[in-house]
Amino acid sequence: MMDALILARWQFGLTTIYHWLFVPVTLGLTIAIACMEIAYVSTKNESYKKMAQFWGKLFLINFAMGVVTGLVQEFQFGMNWSEYSRFMGDIFGAPLALEALTAFFLESTFMGAWIFGWDKLSAKAHMVVAILVAIGSNLSAFWILVANSFMQHPVGFALQNGRAEMVSFGDLVSNGYVVGQYAHIFTDGLMIAGIIIASVSAYYLIREKAVDFYRRSAKWGLTFAIIGGILVMGAGHIHGQYVTEVQPMKTAAFEALWETQQPAPFTVVANINEETQSNSAALNIPDVLSLVAAGNSDAKVLGIKDIQKMDVQKYGPGNYIPNVTALFWSFRVMVGSGILMFIVALISYWKLRRNTLVQSKGWLKVLFWMLPFAYLANATGWFVAEGGRQPWIVYGLQKTAVANSPYVTAGDIWTTIIGFSLIYILAAIAAFYLAIRCIKNGPQGNDSHDVAAVEEEAKLWK
Predict the structure, then answer these.
(1) What domain range includes position 186?
(2) How far apart are CA 251 and CA 386, in angstroms?
(3) Do 167 and 219 share a domain, yes or no?
């Protein structure tokens, strides 16, 4: 039987991954929909209004699922992780309260106006509402990441009466970890939303339904995917260097770098043995890790063994090494999925510009199958961010092993895991059904031979 701590970790991990499937999609789609409405107001082209309405339905389904799973996730802080809440409540509560007051209320209020205001608001007013929804959604993500970034890199606090208490709200908001993490999440959302729009569009281009609408949507999706892909790679690189500075164990773990090396190679694949703390059958690229992690091909990168010794001296006896094998492969799945989606998006856009994409049924199938890679990249990326911090729940301040609720039993958690899992399965089925139904219905009133709209769009893109 697993004990209460392990079950609490499993429950939070499952809830977080499930929640995270919807968050980046929602963040990116709000930006895309706002841009579509701006294009509609600028050109008076009805096709952009239809695009905003169609993709807006998929956004609402994702948003609803994100809210439901997010609420359950927050309840767990008090139910399963009361010692964490006691220790961190003074700091963790502030950004969560601001998320509700300044972001969620803004987002939900104007989302209602966006849903019901198509025939009641002017085109410009509705465009402003769409922009405010996008701002609210991404502001909400900012405050959540402020709280999470403190757990990754604590700043602006003082330890008093056995608790971490805030002494500088400015330091909390300006935490260097917030900047890098938010930039990475924001640009990831753009890329993921673009891939989803392009993949769904490819599905209907294969079937030659509403060709002009989905060709136009594919162009928008691919544009967002390419722009987001370029930005997310840059943001990830910069944030990775910051992580190497403040969380050297995380970088060493997802690179399976056991020994300190100067310069350090990048390991493409390896057979990792955590018991002997060594790798075999490794494929290495010399000097690349030093260049990526420190910006200098001759830089020293600390290895897991040396960091473990340093942590023992700093924090006392204990094992400070996370699950190296899981982190190593998760990081490669994340990066590999992102690179694959970016390459497919580039080739697809090139084909679209040459007017050969619609006729390339085989390649459209490749574009369509990028859809699961979007979710795979999100899930593995979040695991790397959170799993790489272990054994800390608050880095350097509180270990996960002492943060759970002492009076919640394994039976209690089994009950909620089973109950919530059943609810999530039913919710996923409902969301999937609604999304498929929305996609099958397609854009309402779409004319697949709208020549004037195509010519107008061509002028806009030029």
Answers:
(1) 22-247+323-461
(2) 12
(3) yes
